[in-house]
Amino acid sequence: MDRKEAIALLRSYVKNEKMIAHCLASEAVLRALAERLDADVEQWALAGLLHDLDVEITNADPKVHALKGAGILEQHGIDPDIVEAVRLHNEEAAHGGTRQKPLHHALAAGETITGLITATALVYPDKKVASVKPKSITKRMKEKAFAASVNRDTIMECEKLGLSLQEFVELSLNAMKKIGPDIGL
Questions:
Q1: pLDDT for 75-84, tens place per residue?
Q2: Could you tell me where the DSSP H helices lie in the chain?
Q3: What is the number of domains present in the chain?
Q4: 45, part of any domain
């Protein structure tokens, strides 16, 4: 499936533009991670783009979110490794599965850090990701009350990819800065 087809598929299930922006941000972060780790760039980017395909049809119910999405992706003939990573990105719905492969950790950590970066950008006066500094993100990691729904332990799975938090923050922030206008930041 090429990117144009993937975006059409995503938009057929997701109508909320903020959720589309999150998926685009996740795609950018996963693309950057794959480039850095010499992984399959298109595969990882597609996983980032489509990981929340079912968020609206499941009402983001943590017990089923990602399971339905994985099923939809299977029906569309998506690479089984992507399907597995999508299924495992929501640990509450994984039903006994555990993240073990680099793509699993990359998707979980990558899509999660986009929330922290977005929340940080939104407290800046211009609300632009271009203004955010890596130090601000690492500082916000320590503030549990800030973006409280962002799972810091999931972000720390970057270490399972051989990246320090600082490296991961810089890579992710730079990826999102490249597409800031596309995601309204």
A1: 999 999 999 9
A2: 3-13, 17-37, 41-50, 67-75, 80-89, 102-122, 134-142, 152-155, 165-178
A3: 1
A4: yes
